[in-house]
C-alpha cells in the first residue's frame, strides 16, 4: 500500500511547502525552532500520493526518502528540494557579512 502525504505552507516562507505523512502533525515531527521559523501553518493538500507532488519522479523519490528518514521535508516552488532544513536561511549571507565587515572597518 502506498503512503499518503499532506503538505502545508508557512506564512514566513512564501512558495515553500512542508511535506509530512498524512497521519502525523507538524508539531510531532518537525523540530520546534524550524517550525517556528516557518511561521503559521495552513494546510495546502490534505491527502496526496507521492506522484501528485510537483516534481518529476526523481524529485518525488527524494522528498519521500527525506520524509521517511526525518519525518518531514521542505520544498520550494519551483523545483527546489530543501530537505529537512529551510535551505540556507540559518546560514549567514557571505555578501552581507562582508559588507558588515567593511562598515565596521570604516567606522573604526
TrEMBL record:
<protein>
    <submittedName>
        <fullName>Uncharacterized protein</fullName>
    </submittedName>
</protein>
